[in-house]
Amino acid sequence: RPYASTKDPDLNLFSHEGSQKLEDEDDLRRLFHTYLRYERNGMCRRLAMMSVAPSFQLAGPDNLEKVPELSGDYQDSTLLEAALARLASVRLLILTEYYTLSVLCLERLLGVGPLINPFTNLRLNGRSDKHALPQREKLVSQSRHILAETQSSDLKLWKEIKKRFRSQVSESQISNRDLAIRDALQGEPLFSPAWFTEENLANHEGKVLATMAQSLARRASQFPELADPMIDQMASWQRFTPEAAERLAHSARKQLARL
């Protein structure tokens, strides 16, 4: 993929200052050995640097992208060895390519109810690259062998990550049915934020709940074999009070019967 780093969401192969001379394969190789050195085997580097950074706090100042050693000049084999060693201590893998499965694994690990966001479809990395020029996209497309060279350890690491992820899913006892239910609920936004204005919540709570139930019933009607568990799972969302959850499930099933 063209995105080079999480340092800046708009920083990638095409927007970086070094890409101004991105005209041939030699320029592409140079880019990965200079400006984008920290993206050569970037996954391996970041896993390895987790062993170097003093600490990590989700709300603190620590930032893996700012660890000085990230841009060091390392042997590919050394990076891979360090990354694999660190991978062994990772308790949970979350892969954007399998985001729903990852969330289900997280729920099993934490022992919590459904981590659902009914306001989104959870599609990730869907943006286009506004910086890319056709000739540069063509160059990168035709130079995949160079990308394979610069990411050789990452490619090996990725095989191990996917192997670990498959084991994680199996150990979490997630079935195809579990995945189908969640995909059905999250395939498209289920609720609209516009329903939840202060005015509606203060004076029209019953109407808001009825609108939610109607949307849930319509979605469930598209998946008859999954309708009941879909309603139950949405009603078990932790944002609902027990009373609201019961009313939502009852109303959704009542409306479903009419569809």
Provide a quick synopsis of the model.
The protein is mainly alpha-helical and 259 residues long. Helix content is 53%, strand content 0%.
Plain-language structure description:
The protein is mainly α and 259 residues long. The protein contains twelve helices and no strands. Helix 10 runs antiparallel to helix 11. The chain starts with 24 loop residues before the first helix and ends with a helix. Mean pLDDT is 83; it is low at 1-15.
Helices and strands, with pairings:
Blueprint: H1 25-33, H2 42-49, H3 76-87, H4 99-110, H5 134-142, H6 144-150, H7 152-171, H8 176-186, H9 198-203, H10 205-221, H11 227-235, H12 242-258
Measured distance between first and last alpha carbons = 44 Å
Q: Per DSSP, what share of the residues sits in E-state strands of 2 or more residues? A: under 5%
Query: What summary fits the major beta sheet?
Result: none
Helical segment tally?
A: 12
Helix content: 40-55%
The coarse silhouette is elongated
* Strand tally: 0
Q: Can you tell me the residue ranges where pLDDT is under 50 for at least 5 consecutive residues? A: 1-15
Q: Secondary-structure element sequence?
A: HHHHHHHHHHHH
Gyration radius over CA? 23 Å
Computed structural class: mainly alpha
User: What's the pLDDT, averaged over the residues?
Assistant: 83
